[in-house]
Amino acid sequence: MADDGRAQMNAASEQTRPAGLLSEPHFWRLLRAKLATQIGQNIVLYTVLIVVVERTESSMQSTLLVLAMTLPSVILGVPAGLVVDWLPKRALLLLVGLVRAGVCLALLQHGASLRDIYLLVLVFAAVGQLQGPAESAGLPGLVGRGRLGSANAYLILVTLAAQVSGMVIIAPAFLKTVGESPLYVLSGILFVVGAVTYARTSGLGAPLEAEEASPPAEAPRRIGLWAGLEVIRRDRTIYLAMVELTLAAFLMKSLVVLTPHYAHDILHLAPDNSVFIATPAAAGALIGLALVPLLTWFISPGRLVTAGLVLFIAGLVGLGYVYFAADAVQEHLRLNLSGLEDRLGISSVVSMTMLLAIPLGLAFTVVSVGARTVFNRRSPPELQGRVFATQSALADLASVPPLLAVGAVADLVGVRLVLLVAAGLCAIVAVAARLASPGQRRSAAPPEGGVSREH
Question: Does the reported pTM lie above 0.90?
């Protein structure tokens, strides 16, 4: 298409221009489309979870629902990447949005049956496997390789805003007042709006000249379903970023499962007071989104991923030893944490937990943005969908065990031990992956505005 060609030329030329991404109308369209679809997705997932919990009062039923949301990625994630690489990105995103709007209509008509809810959630999650890889694989053609760090940071910021809007504000307000049916209608409208906006985003998925990569002899041998895995296996930097992002995702999902237990067992608060962890973590994520585009001027994205994982593991260890950390801070740094107890009515341990949660949110953002930038900048353009889909499938596969076991194990041995063991095991896996990483070390893509560095 002519407009895609022009968008490609504009994106390439913008790599050397100082104008910000937010000044470009097509990138704004992408942000609006993602915001609409992500709000709709969070509304649907939160609503069906609350509906199942209220109707069954069973933790097993809610666990099954979460698995219904996760398993399609494990089973269909890699084939979805192949589809993404074959089909036009804008048409695919349009189709995904319309199908998800249809699922919302079906939930409106058949939401009284738990069986139908589970089946529709499976369909909703299955078709959703196309959206993330299509969006990520289409991004380089829209913004150019030189600004992928900034673009990914903006997209993650939109994702966080959608989570707050959908799961914290809109869905709870509707459920307390008018019930779930209007939420399904609203979500369907948001999916249609997002789908049409994606379709109008010229340049999304435009052809882009591949970055100079490995010699021809090192090119991926597989060109079909598992080509993404071959790219990951043969490029050391992509491989390490994939492993470290998967470990960070595993730890984050484990932390989400353990947070209510942590609030009750460690902080001696009601489980619903996990806001003392979630809120500062969200603040840390926002700080990370502001810092990452600046850091990518001086540090390669691969090194950022590693640094973010190290910081995340250190934060989890700090949560495990939060009492010792609170005592050490008051004794050696002279921070008057106990004074907050008198002013705000929270203990020094809760204050220390809030302080530790900030770098946790920042670290996970650094890992997420850095890894996505590595995948975008180093993967062959025609295989990016499969690379993103393969990573997503592996990350979700790693999340299934904690969904099934972490909460139960914490009841048996305590949340502190589970946190420390999970952090320690992930540190060991990260070191082992670095020592035994397959593939070849290539000259890394230069940081945005900086000089070339290796991972």
Answer: no
